[in-house]
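Fold this: Putative acetyltransferase
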Amino acid sequence: MMNIRNAEIADLDALLVLSEQIGTLHFNNAPLVFKKPSAADKPFWLNVLNDESTLFLLAETEYQIVGFLTATITKNETIPFIVSCRICRIGTIIVDEKHRACGIGTKLMSACEQWAKSQEATQIRLEVMDFNQSAQQFYQQLGFQDQSHIMCRYLD
């Protein structure tokens, strides 16, 4: 049995285990963008947990936390040529390596979508790294489409 619920401060150590998994994946694939997971991650996640404007969901079995998702709502109020609507922006989604392809990510995304609708958001956006093909396929299966591409060129 799996349950989706709001994360709490008491969940921090278990969340750090998952954070290390996603951090290591990103560092190994894009070391010029991401730092290796470290003790500095703990205060970051503690701040996210304490931020009342951030949705912080976790997925748990009766034995352990197996995934989490963070999201916020933004609205363009400054750029005149961009539509001003409420947008749910997913910050992080991670499912434990041993529990992938079991529907956990889909359940987290569904709960996020329900929350976004309750916040009167009109869309959900997220950024996914180019190297993370499995995540891109997952989002495409959920109906996400490319909207833009972030490009980078490193300077000598």
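The radius of gyration is 16 Å. The CA atoms of residues 52 and 133 lie 32 Å apart.
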